[in-house]
Write a structure and sequence with these properties.
mainly alpha; elongated
Length: 56
């Protein structure tokens, strides 16, 4: 993510802030994602994850 930000902005500071923001978003999402995974069937979620990965 930081490398893409640097390629667009050509600023190391902007690339660093982008990487930091992405990491914070990942940590916040993992709290809710963990709760979601605990409440639903794992096999179904694995299949959905694989299908989304193929589509993207």
């Amino acid at each position: 993510m930081s490398l893409a930000g640097y390629a667009v902005s050509e600023s190391t500071a902007a690339a660093g802030w982008l990487g930091t923001a992405a990491l914070i978003a990942q940590q916040v999402a993992s709290v809710f994602g963990g709760t979601f995974v605990d409440r639903h069937e794992r096999r179904t979620l694995i299949v959905i994850n694989a299908a989304v990965g193929v589509c993207t």
